[in-house]
Amino acid sequence: QVQLVESGGGLVQAGGSLRLSCAASGRTFSGYVMGWFRQAPGKEREFVAAITWNSGSTYYADSVKGRFTISRDNAKNTVYLQMNSLKPEDTAVYYCAADRISSGGSYYTREYDYWGQGTQVTVSA
Prior knowledge:
Blueprint: E1 3-7, E2 10-13, E3 18-25, E4 32-39, E5 46-52, E6 58-60, E7 68-73, E8 78-83, E9 92-100, E10 114-115, E11 119-124
Parallel strand pairs: 2-11
Antiparallel strand pairs: 1-3, 3-8, 4-5, 4-9, 5-6, 7-8, 9-10, 9-11
């Protein structure tokens, strides 16, 4: 079965950087979109970024544009989220998700089929 495992979270000072990894297994992800979401305490889960597995087309939430970069290594079945210029507002549990591109709909708002357990990112002032 499909499994997504996030890693790379931790504590970082404001202005610093972290790189999150999502190890995907259980299938070939050709034809999938991979997404990153985050959820802070007391808040709804929100879209962060997405990338198509085949073409590498990327999509970002306005709040992270210019600071975060999503990428993937198809051979390693891994997707990354490079986070720079981190702000305390970025503190959240970050989740990796995957969905069939053929499901249709916006990569921001669609309901993804598969989810990881999340990794904590804490940005201190």
